[in-house]
């Protein structure tokens, strides 16, 4: 079997850069957890869109008489958190369900938990943080109503992001703990180094002995999740 070719992010051909990751939900994620992983991916996309809307709102905030520091920080958050959130919490979730990796589950829990706290702070919206949350938006109504209305959009979107992150964190944690996962398993993977090189699909097929090959040779034994919470 040929090695998979990286396909994410999908860059135009005229850009002299190549995708950094291979992502294929149908081929790599067990069918009973595919919807959940796709939802987490869609949550990442929604959060990136929220950061873009926040950038526009911070510009309106600045034009309406606010501080330009918020606009500068909004640019920084967009450039930093868009790729970092994909690498630091979506990829661990993807790899955790792909190869039943306790280490990646733990990485997802810790990093995604920090992301959830950050989203809550962004939804609150303290002035000078580069986020148009509820506090900054409501307070700015006394200065510029038009800019304040625009600032309400990212406040709502940050709130939705935080709620969705909480639901995703709870669902994944329940699945992991329901299957007997623990911190000790993650430590064992770390000590053995198996988290670096999970079993390839070729190895899984070659090690399978039976009359027919299953669609997913190694499937995590997590409780079935048919619906997104």
TrEMBL record:
Chief location bin:
membrane
Question: Which domain of life does the protein's organism represent?
Answer: Eukaryota
Q: How does it sit in the membrane?
A: Multi-pass membrane protein
Q: Is the Cytoplasm keyword given for this protein?
A: no
Listed InterPro entries: SCAMP (IPR007273)
Q: Which UniProt keywords apply?
A: Membrane, Phosphoprotein, Protein transport, Transmembrane, Transmembrane helix, Transport
> Which biological process terms from the Gene Ontology are attached to this UniProt entry?
protein transport
Q: Which GO terms describe its cellular component?
A: recycling endosome membrane; trans-Golgi network membrane
| Regions that span the bilayer | 43-63, 69-90, 102-125, 145-170
Instruction: State a single Pfam family of this protein.
Output: SCAMP
Return the Polar residues bias intervals.
Answer: 189-212
**Where does it live in the cell?**
Membrane
Coiled-coil residue windows: none
For region Disordered, the annotated ranges are 185-229
> What family is reported?
Belongs to the SCAMP family.
According to its UniProt entry, what is the function of this protein?
Answer: Probably involved in membrane protein trafficking.
PANTHER family linked to this entry: SECRETORY CARRIER-ASSOCIATED MEMBRANE PROTEIN 4, SECRETORY CARRIER-ASSOCIATED MEMBRANE PROTEIN SCAMP
The entry's protein name is: Secretory carrier-associated membrane protein
What is the organism field in this record? Microcaecilia unicolor
Which gene name belongs to this protein? SCAMP4
């Amino acid at each position: 079997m040929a090695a998979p070719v990286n396909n994410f992010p999908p860059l135009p051909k005229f850009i002299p850069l190549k995708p950094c990751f291979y992502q294929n939900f149908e081929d790599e994620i067990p069918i009973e957890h595919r919807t959940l992983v796709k939802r987490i991916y869609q949550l990442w996309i929604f959060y990136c869109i929220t950061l873009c809307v926040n950038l526009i709102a911070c510009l309106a905030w600045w034009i309406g008489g606010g501080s330009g520091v918020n606009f500068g920080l909004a640019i920084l958050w967009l450039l930093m958190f868009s790729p970092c959130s994909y690498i630091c919490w979506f990829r661990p979730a993807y790899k955790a369900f792909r190869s039943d990796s306790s280490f990646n589950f733990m990485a997802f829990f810790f990093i995604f938990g920090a992301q959830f706290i950050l989203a809550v702070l962004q939804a609150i919206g303290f002035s000078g943080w580069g986020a148009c949350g509820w506090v900054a938006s409501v307070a700015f109504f006394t200065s510029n109503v038009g800019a304040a209305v625009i600032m309400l959009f990212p406040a709502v979107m940050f709130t939705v992001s935080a709620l969705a992150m909480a639901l995703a964190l709870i669902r994944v944690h329940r699945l992991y703990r329901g299957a007997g996962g623990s911190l000790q398993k993650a430590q064992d993977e770390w000590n053995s180094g198996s988290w670096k090189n999970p079993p390839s699909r070729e190895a899984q097929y070659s090690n399978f002995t039976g009359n027919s090959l299953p669609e997913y040779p190694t499937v995590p034994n997590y409780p079935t999740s048919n619906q997104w919470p």
